[in-house]
Amino acid sequence: MKKVFSVIAVFTLCFALLTGCGSKTVNLSEVMDKINSDFSLSLKTLDDAEKLDQYYSIKSEDVKQFAAEIDSNNDAPVEIVLVEAVDAAAADRVESALTTRYNAIISQYSSYTPEKLSAAQACKVTKDGNYVTMIVAEEGPEMLEIFYDYLK
Predict the structure, then answer these.
(1) Residue 134: inside a domain, yes or no?
(2) Where residue 29 falls among pLDDT bands split at 50, 70, 90?
(3) Which among 43, 54, 116, 129 has the fewest CB atoms less than 10 Å away?
(4) The whole model's pTM is what?
(5) Which of 130, 146, 143 is nearest to 25 (CA)?
């Protein structure tokens, strides 16, 4: 009888651990506030999901929450886009849309500001579960670390 209870307890603990993994919710507005605070940014906020469609071709029905800010300085755009998609398929679509935009930015840097190209190439689009990011800024890798600190 003790063995049965022990086995049940072990399975219960394993199930609890497995179902708890990857389920952390991150408030993307808090992450953006931290990035802005740490890097003294003053960017234009995209304040509704329709603007994600306008700028990135991301459909609002794919978005659970987001935080996005841009600086449309033509010679060296800075764009920080943090999205939590509604599900895995939506995350794939968001990743595809942001990758398309990222490639366009790299092309723009190559043509107009080649001296900043290496900084842009150090940035990237990432996907972790339903969270998708695109951070293009001189401090992009450091900003991404802030996001991952919240995701932990």
Answers:
(1) yes
(2) very high
(3) 54
(4) 0.81
(5) 130
Find tokens 């290496």 and name the residue.
Answer: 118
Number of domains, the chain: 1
Q: Which domain holds residue 90?
A: 25-151
Q: In DSSP terms, which residues pair with 127 in a beta bridge?
A: 132
Instruction: Give the DSSP H/E element, type plus range, for residue 37.
Output: helix 28-39
CB atoms inside a 10 Å sphere around CB 139 = 18
Rounded Cα distance between 11 and 136, Å, is 44
Contacts of 87 (CB under 8 A, 6+ apart): 130
Residue 79 is encoded by which pair of tokens?
């764009």
By the 8 A CB rule, do 88 and 131 touch? no
pLDDT-derived band at 23, boundaries 50, 70, 90: low
pLDDT, one tens digit per residue, over 42-91 is 888 998 888 999 999 999 999 999 999 998 665 567 899 999 999 999 99
